[in-house]
Design brief:
By secondary structure, the protein is mainly α. The protein contains 11 helices and 3 strands; from the N terminus they run αβααββαααααααα.
Length: 241
């Protein structure tokens, strides 16, 4: 169990990934990297032969790619790769694939800029609107994050970092901010899994997490905003470097 009483990622039972997931990601990354060019085509038969999968699995591959607006199925034409402007850029799956492709630097820059705008506003709103349970949960969570960060326990640190950012976004009173939680989780997970996190988080980042937790606990919107700006600025600087 995590320090917040929630079941941690490592405690949850793992399920095998659906059979279509690997082929869909492979094709998606090829589209993202331009190896499958816009307006080029394929068929379900092509997917079946290439990945040695059933017709049902090939259809699931197509459905996932269509959900991300990477392809469109057209009668008498087949499956056509979409222009980049049509992609569903805010979908967490597309963000994850971009982070695992040659498009990673652009994705990190764009998503971190978005966080830099949204999360300080969410923190300020949470200082005004968060319920007592959330306010009380944040300071000990931030303290536990410091302990884990200083010990270099990045997986456990990441889980609590996700919990904190989700709680702040969910407490903002803005449903669009709340809907960003999955996007923030994707980038936090990728930063750890792709070794983009320092082995020990920077002291100023740990201090900023404690500051935002304390400000929300006290109901200080200005201090919460400033502390979250410090957090997202550190991430911008890290990815810029």
């Amino acid at each position: 169990m995590s320090a917040t009483g929630e079941q941690s990622t490592s405690d949850r039972p793992t399920r095998p990934a659906p059979m279509h997931r690997g082929p869909a990601r492979d094709l998606g990354i090829e589209i993202i990297e331009g190896r499958l060019a816009a307006d080029s085509g394929m068929t379900l038969d092509d997917i079946q032969r290439r990945f040695d999968v059933s017709r049902t699995v090939a259809r699931e591959v197509l459905r996932e790619l269509e959900t991300l607006h990477l392809v469109v199925a057209r009668r008498r034409v087949g499956i056509v790769v979409q222009q980049r402007a049509a992609w569903n850029f805010l979908h967490p799956t597309l963000i994850d694939w971009r982070l695992r492709s040659e498009d990673r630097p652009r994705q990190l820059h764009d998503l971190t800029q978005l966080r830099h705008v949204v999360e300080p506003a969410a923190a300020a709103a949470a200082a005004d609107l968060a319920d007592v349970e959330t306010r009380a949960m944040l300071p000990p969570l931030a303290a536990r994050m410091r302990t884990l960060g200083e010990a270099g326990q990045l997986e456990e640190f990441m889980e609590l970092d996700i919990t904190m950012h989700r709680a702040i976004l969910a407490s903002s009173g803005n449903e669009l901010f709340t809907a960003m939680a999955d996007l923030v989780e994707v980038v936090l997970v990728a930063r750890t899994e792709l070794s983009l996190m320092p082995q020990q988080p920077k002291p100023e980042a740990l201090a900023a997490h404690e500051a935002v937790a304390d400000a929300i606990w006290r109901g200080d919107a200005g201090a919460a905003r400033d502390a979250m700006v410090a957090i997202t600025t550190e991430v911008l600087d890290a990815f810029g470097a």
